[in-house]
Amino acid sequence: MSKSSKDQMGLDEKKVLSELVKNSNKNIETIAKLVGFSKQKTWRIIKRLESKELIWGYTAIFDEEKMGLKHFMVLIKRSMKRLDESTINKIVSRKLEDVIKELGITIESSSYVHGDFDWILTFTAKDIVQAKKFSDALVMFHPGVIDNISIVETLIYIKKHYILNPEKARLKEFL
Predict the structure, then answer these.
(1) At 51, which helix (H) or strand (E)?
(2) Which residues pair with 121 in a beta bridge?
(3) Which of 1, 120, 154, 171 is the most exposed place for a label (fewest CB within 10 A)?
(4) pLDDT for 96-109, tens place per residue?
(5) In sequence order, what are the residues at sequence separation of 6 or more whose Cβ sits closer than 8 angstroms to the Cβ of residue 139?
(6) Within a domain: 13
(7) Are residues 73 and 114 located together in one domain of the fold?
(8) Domains contained in the chain, number
(9) What is the pLDDT of residues 119-147, one digit of tens each?
């Protein structure tokens, strides 16, 4: 395959990805029309992106507030303690998910990061009390591993998962 056809494939993939980000709930025919490709070409591109694991999955963006939930972030600073193999396996295995189910917490995202903190978890909970219980459970689940933990509550999304909040004007209430 020539370099120019590989470059074109990359451009086509980016075009389809961009449209999927905005319209993942649309059918192939609609996506194809929006990007200007045939249904077959669009389907092949999506399957190729999935097989390359560039697409991990599809999701719906929902309004937590309307579901009686609040959105939080937990910022975690690791201690300088060297992690042993069992602690590393415990973190990688995601067994924490099982522990927090009984708290009614749903983890939205989990990221290992560089900066003032080492880990950021975003999650939904019914209130700050429940979020605090989650924070405490994290510390207990990983004894000696967490040096500092901070809870941050999301007041309003302006943009979430690349999509502008249809109620973004509510930001005025907070400013």
Answers:
(1) helix 39-51
(2) 74, 110
(3) 1
(4) 777 777 888 989 99
(5) 146, 149
(6) yes
(7) yes
(8) 2
(9) 999 999 999 999 999 999 999 888 889 99
Give tens-digit pLDDT for 57-90.
888 788 888 899 999 999 999 999 888 888 888 7
Whether 73 and 41 map to the same domain: the answer is no
The CB-side HSE value for 133 (13 A sphere, CA atoms) comes to 14
**Do 46 and 76 fall into the same domain?**
no
Mark whether 47 and 74 lie in a shared domain. no
Residue-range definition of the domain harbouring residue 34: 3-51
Between 162 and 112, the more confident residue is 112
Instruction: Tell me: pLDDT of 2 over 80.
Output: no
Task: Give the domain CATH number at 12.
Answer: 1.10.10
CA distance 22 to 162: 7
Report which DSSP code applies to 55: -
Same domain, 33 and 73: no
* Residue whose entry in the numeric block shows the structure tokens 């009614």: 104
